[in-house]
Amino acid sequence: MKTRYLQSIIEKDIESKMVFLAGPRQVGKTTLAQTIAKKYSRPVYLNWDNSAHRQQISNFRWSPDTDLLILDEIHKEPDWKNLVKGIWDTRNKNMHMIVTGSSRLNIYTRGGDSLSGRYLLHRLHPFSLRELSPAGNYSFQLKEKATPSLCFDRESEGLNQLSDFGGFPEPLLASNKRQWRRWKQNRFETVIREDIRDTAGVNLITKLELMGHMLNNRVCSPLSMKSFAGDLGVSPKTVKSWLDIFSENYFTFKVPPYHKSLQRALRKESKYYLWDWSVLDDPGSRFENLIASHLLKFCNFASDTYGYSARLFYVRDTDKREVDFLIEWENKPWLIVECKLKQGGRLQPLKYFGERLDITERFMVVMENGVDYVEQNSNVRIISADRFLNAFV
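The structure corresponding to this sequence follows.
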């Protein structure tokens, strides 16, 4: 079993705060929490989906000697925030707590009382190339500098495996096509029919399933709500609300357009990506989605663990110049990335936006192995994905 990238960090954080561990269904939240529990003498695991466990949680029934309490999927209780607050405020001071959930615990607002100051949020992502590669313990640290110092001097195998099977532990570590096909079908049905229905109260399951399938051909490009609404036979407002539900349940994530200091920048249409990029048939879209997931994981890690403001955008203007990704670090543009399966893509947009936004970190990331050089005219580094991605978490 591989050590997940958040394990040592959570082990430190639960010494002083309650930890919220959020992330997609089947990404390994429960496994990680139970791995941490092995270091405690009297841990208790309770899952809200289990009726007996639900009674224990509601009545605060666990041993007074409990030193780690893990509450799984408790966000499905409408008043879960007040319930968790009550448990935390009345606990034995030697008891630590981990709360896990497959909906966004940080924005789930059904509860009444605030939990501010009582918890630290961590978002667990699927495996990335760097996390998949090393044997033994995994660690990643950001040096305390104005901007991150990334090291591109290492590369590793596993990129094709990650592309074909996605980053979720079960299909990735098995790397078996038959098992992967069954797993992805089960996950899709579970997210739509259980998570989204239960947490959002949405009854139009057939429409949502159709929308989920249609997203496979609409990721990686600016999404027109009006066009999507016409295909689904609903209003643009409904499409937007459904996309929000998909994002809240970790089926998709949104990458908005960057427009600060760019007069002709596109401002409205966001791009959407899937948490499981392996379902995409088009190799170019799958590769771009894989890169997007790695960059989002880095941004969430920097925010959750170190408190930095790190946000992921794309850039496009009315003259149709576009760059796939831009990371804003502490409210300043820091890094721009274009993704291509092979060398030879246009570098002019990277140069154009790099100069106007004063970004020196400019990358063309390609699927080809053994590529790493700087194109002098544009100051763009053309680099293999297996080297580029190893610089991130």
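The longest helix spans residues 177-200.
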